[in-house]
Amino acid sequence: MFVRTAGERDLAAVRALLVETWHATYDAIYGAAKVAEITDEWHSIASLKARLTRPNSEFLVADDGNRIRGMAFAAATTDARIVMLNQLYVHPACQRQGIGQALLEEVEASFPEARTLRVEVEEANAPAVAFYRSKGFLPAGNTADCGGGSGLPALILEKAIE
Asked: I need a surface site. Which of 43, 64, 78, 107 has the fewest CB within 10 A?
């Protein structure tokens, strides 16, 4: 397994990973119809393609040579010392194998000026909250609008990075 920068040729596989992972994670929380609506908007090929060229960002995939097993997308905020981890997803069948850790480490290494890594997490997604807490993230507040424009509530977790 290796972590690398995503390219346009990866987008269909990344979208498939996101759709499957979102349904596995969020159908019980939001319902399948709402998850389909979100994934159609947030994880469309056009939306993913736009991330490839976003300034001050990193779009990563965990690739085993045969299949994309995980992905992450992070971007600096208006304050370059704060990076927002917008996405970190690992295929459900591949979780607990160190892929999320490898993606997280590469995100941290990709922003040498950053001092804080921030993530918004659905509070009901206990495995994700536990993952981030185990990696040193601490509660920093709440938002009523996860990702901006969703209307979904989320915990805000932050980690100091050096």
From this structure: 78
Tokens of 101: 């850790």
CA distance 89 to 160: 21
In this model, does residue 21 exceed pLDDT 70? yes
Instruction: Report the DSSP beta bridge partners of residue 107.
Output: none
What value does the mean pLDDT of the chain take? 93
| Residue at token pair 């996405």 | 87
pTM: 0.93
Matching residue, tokens 């960002």: 57
Q: In which element (H, E) is residue 106 found? A: helix 99-109
| DSSP-assigned states of every residue in 30-45 | H-HHHHHHHHHHHTSH
